[in-house]
Amino acid sequence: MTNNEQHTPLLSVDHLVTEFSAKGNKSITVVDDVSFTVNPGEIVAIVGESGSGKSITSQSIMGLLKSGGSITNGSIHYQGSNILTLSKKERRQLRGKEMSMIFQEPMSSLNPMLRIKSQIAEALRINQPSKSKRETMDNAIDLLKQVEIPDAEAVANRFPHQLSGGMRQRVMIAIALAGDPKLLIADEPTTALDVTTQAQILALIKDLNKRNGTGVIFITHDLSVVADIADRVLVMYAGKIVESATVYDLFEHPQHPYTIGLMKAMPTLDSQVEELEPISGNAPNLANKPEGCAFYPRCPFATEACLTAVPELRTLEKGHDVRCIHPVKEGVLHEK
Amino acid sequence: MKSDPKNVLLKVAGLKKHFPVQKKGNKKEQQVVKAVDGVSFHVRAGETLGIVGESGSGKSTVAKLIMQLLQPTEGEVVFQDKDIFNQTKKQRKQTQKRIQMVFQDPYASLNPRMTAKQIVTEPLRIHEKMSKEDLDKRALELLEEVGLGKHHLNRYPHQFSGGQRQRLSIARAIALKPNLIVCDEAVSALDVSIQAQILNLLKQLQKNYGIAFIFIAHGLPAVKHISDRIAIMYAGQIVEIADRDVLFTNPKHPYTKALLDAVPPSNPRHRKEKTLVKGEPPSLMSPTRGCPFVSRCPNATEGCHTNAPELLEHEVNHHYACHHPVQAPNNLENIGGRNS
Amino acid sequence: MKHKISFSKQLKNIGSRILELSTPLGMIGLITVSIIVILAIIAPWVVPHDPFSMDATKRLTPPFWMDGGSSTYILGTDHVGRDLLSRLIYGSRVSLLVGLLSVLIAGIIGLFLGLLSGYFGGSWIDQSIMRVVDAMLAIPTLLLVLVAIVVFEPGLVTLILVIGLTSWAQYTRLVRGEVLSVKEREFVQSAKTLGASNTHIISKHILPNVLSSFIVVATIGIATAIMTESSLSFLGLGVQPPDITWGSMLNDGRNYIATSWWIATFPGLAITVTVLAITFLGDWLRDILDPKLKKGGDDDDE
């Protein structure tokens, strides 16, 4: 269970709506009424497939939406104050110092022309401009050691292309940690990495979270990564949170048919099934979402009611919310 | 599963592919990247051989060699008793009919300027003389075979989703009723729910037509799901090859075990303190005398640095290349994701 | 058969894209170019006066809105009393003819050699073609054209041939680069695994995918050719009188620029407007010919 609910959470997102403008004065709602909190020292995973809005949620929080995208409703509170009302400059000052982000492709996030140490030093200087050059360099090496880069002094003098994918992601994490942020947003940080490297990076993020008490939002499409790292999980589908629970609750008692479908569709090492049970069909086009529940065209349990009624996110028990008219718990699920 | 020599469809023996690279500022010193360095295995008719490896392990180069997109430096690939690198143009075309490939990226592997119909009938237009009516009929059959329909015939690739595009690639691959399909990371780029659809489709096609698959991937769970036998590649070599269940319950090579350990659990209850393998694969340019895994191996001894182990059949159908194989196979706690 | 179907399909596709993707600049380009082309074709029937007939009494008449201007000569007359508007309309014929035909010649050579060079990238064929291209590109086109004009008789045909034969190198280089990248794309690899022949791969997979960037550059090449033609005619090395071109009109007006500015200004404007319009058109073609064109704005997680 999550700790200290009476305290102000580190981050609290309430009824966030992010839209992108489209042709003909239309707009597409990519993030639809998303609410969640992140407490200090907690790892919250957002899991979903392409087009679920998970990445846009994180970009909304960081204030890094691409052109055409804007937050049209809701609020984002960081340590109790609404950051959406801040000026651009104040927003920028939050990044790095208070919250920072790592991405899927570390190569494109690093400047190919600069040595690793300069890139880390740059991030350090933004936060502590008063330090001497010597001190900054020492700190940079310390950071590299902190992310368990062997032979940190040598690596500091290299260029990004001289490093492997796993090493680059470590460097990215070091840069993200330069401002000693309280919130780290990781957007599919291990998707482009090999299995053994992925395990190393996941262990590193977990370790940093434990050691420094950094709150982490971990965005992924991979349920097994969620199982490995998360404290709490939000499952997103077509821009909405369809289920939110602690990681144990979610895996033991999944309530939303989509969550269940994902689990059945995922091949695992310990399953013995010959046939996977895929979710039929494709994710809906966000510009043209079905009325009623967005998942009903693919849902094996859908009834007449799902066609028209838009399900609300409701709390089934403390800490377990689901956006479904027929959650498993209520025992009305009968597969057609 | 007995190895029946008559049943062998494809035999790869001592296959090597070295790419020359020029070192900066030093034109004389020719170095080579040993992308594939002595790989041998076979595929039986109608079975699925999984090839697992991380980036740089050489698994995709093996696929390209089998597809004759590259010429090997050494070694041979024997398909239906004929060496594919040593045949006349006519024989070659026949072989190309019998082996097909499905690529990883469904966005890159289809010509954006062709319709679905043109895409799936292209193999027929190249190899068979068919009338327009027959082609149309066959196009529809193929699309239906992979779960697409008549209304998809005249669409262009960008009008399909990723999963549907991969279905198109598969329809195209089965058009000539091949004996072998090489799938290079065929589901890696797809969403989880779509991945399962494609894996099931491949299994279905195998059941219906007895097609053999070489299924190349870096994701162990998907490979485990679809394969009969699995080969593990590391730094251009096969380090272990065994029947699927044997490999997952009784991995012998320390690298296989490391890979299994690295797979995240399928349930948070199975989280564990893992002993992670350190470091990263060796550079393929440096000449290796010993075992390629020596720098990361927990079992390595002096001998491993100088003496490369050979891939040998230590148990029936279980080959591995290691001087100090993993002991105590039944300690289930230590095997990735298998905790009760 | 099949070809026709897919071609008409493609035409229909392009038609709907034109409507869907109309941009202000693209539309300006398309409309302006269309007007110029139509005027050039129907010139003999629309010109208000005979563009060749001189009338010393009407010489140096200013445009109609100026003192001494007349509504018969809307844009005024030149130093020998010929109607400027009529001459401008006739001049577009030569400019467009030179532009289109020279780019056609250069394009065909460039496309062919580029495909060859790119597809067999790294081979001796590629090496030798590229060395010739390097040599061609090292010499300024205008200089090459000047030499050629001096050697051969100046005139329309010479001009077209000379511009065409001296400007193919840039197309070769462009097409080669495109082919080199398209060749590595997976769908070409995929066709190779099928056992497709080289001709099949080039015609079905590579050519269709390099054609759109080629068309865009060729369009802009037309504008460049028009400029070259004008420059040469201005220097008196291009089309010879009595044939009318904007370049030679510009030359005619050179001596009168201080007193009768309109003689040089209107042909100058015509060149500028045409070249700009063609460039807009080219930029816009790049968009509508892209098969994977994003509709924009709706990209979420990749």
TrEMBL record, chain A:
It comes from the Bacteria. It is found in: Cell membrane. The keyword Aminoacyl-tRNA synthetase does not apply. Residues 11-263 form the ABC transporter domain. NCBIfam families: oligo_HPY. Belongs to the ABC transporter superfamily. This is Oligopeptide transport system ATP-binding protein. The lineage of its organism: Bacteria, Bacillati, Bacillota, Bacilli, Bacillales.
Automatic annotation (TrEMBL), chain B:
InterPro entries: AAA+_ATPase, ABC_transp_ATP-bind, ABC_transporter-like_ATP-bd, ABC_transporter-like_CS, Oligopep_ABC_C, P-loop_NTPase. GO terms for molecular function: ATP binding; ATP hydrolysis activity. It holds the Pfam family oligo_HPY. Keywords: ATP-binding, Nucleotide-binding, Transport. It comes from the Bacteria. The keyword Flavoprotein does not apply. SMART domains: AAA. One of its GO terms (biological process) is transmembrane transport. The keyword Magnesium does not apply. Residues 10-260 form the ABC transporter domain. Belongs to the ABC transporter superfamily. NCBIfam families: oligo_HPY. This is Oligopeptide transport system ATP-binding protein. It comes from Oceanobacillus limi. The lineage of its organism: Bacteria, Bacillati, Bacillota, Bacilli, Bacillales.
Automatic annotation (TrEMBL), chain C:
This is Peptide/nickel transport system permease protein. Belongs to the binding-protein-dependent transport system permease family. Residues 92-282 form the ABC transmembrane type-1 domain. SUPFAM superfamilies: MetI-like. It is a multi-pass membrane protein. It comes from the Bacteria. GO terms for cellular component: plasma membrane. The keyword Nucleotidyltransferase does not apply.
